[in-house]
Amino acid sequence: MTETNPSGWRPCTSPERLRASRGKNIDRPSPDGRRVRRQPSRTSVRHDSRALRERQNSRGGSVGNRPSHRPAGRRATRSVAPSKSERSKKQSPRSERPWYIDVPIIIAIALIATIAFQAVVGRVYVIPSESMEPTLHGCTDCNNDRVFVNKMVYDFKDPKPGDVVVFKGSESWDNAYTTSRSSNRIVRGFQNLGSYIGLVAPDENDLVKRVIATGGQTVECLPGDKGVKVNGKDIDNSYIMNPPSRSVDTKGGSIACGGEYFGPVKVPEDHLWVMGDNRTNSRDSRFHMGDQYQGTVPVDNVIGRVDARILPFNRIGTVKHPQIQS
């Protein structure tokens, strides 16, 4: 009796097909004639999982994670935040100049600033002689004082008695002046440059003295006087050189006057009577009474007031300007 197969299913009897289908999910019929999906074997699951890992690894990914987009074979590195210096370099990309360019630029700027400052605000001067001892020290071939002269102070007020001032000598004061500059132009240029920073004395007949009397006042020192008088009154002489550095011929002068007698001299308006603190060794107003100004100095010739000693280090300090008239 021939058994009918309504579903049309036929068993696989070929040995080749049986071997090829081993381990695969092949549909097989159920007893009631329906097709049932065969469950994968353990061997098949392991095989499929291994194949999946190999495909993901070949793409740079990993099992259970999203595929990585890094190129295959490239080693992953940990991301490190850039340092502050690196960020600043990236933000301000500028080329650094070599030191042999920066140094001359810095020196040039410093020199220009120094020259501008000394031309307007104040200037450093070298005390050339001993006429202002003991207040200011100066001599030939010695460590002279360097002083700072305030050029702006008299823009707001006039010089007063007791001030130590630097001024340009008038014509009669220039007779004894000789230049200290070299005849070589290059050397002279360096000397002029050095005068602006106080290393070399200016090539000018600039003098430093103390104001004793101003315009309209009368100054004198006569036999019997205890010292210089202004408007008939003794002035403070506590700052002068004592004992005197030189002897005095008492036939025509006295120690109290610091030399020869003089006066009375009435100081013209807008002029100053000046004297050195080293009275017996100072060629000041007393030695120029025969000129057109009677030995006085025009206020317009005043450069500034000596405010401080800045060198040498053991002489650093302010310069006092006492009220010498009572």
From TrEMBL:
Name the segments for region: Disordered.
Answer: 1-95
Classification via InterPro entries: LexA/Signal_pep-like_sf, Pept_S26A_signal_pept_1, Pept_S26A_signal_pept_1_CS, Pept_S26A_signal_pept_1_Ser-AS, Peptidase_S26
Q: Where does this protein have compositionally biased stretches of type Basic residues?
A: 67-77
Cellular location of this protein? Cell membrane; Membrane
A biological process from GO: signal peptide processing
The similarity annotation says:
Belongs to the peptidase S26 family.
The name this protein goes by in its record? Signal peptidase I
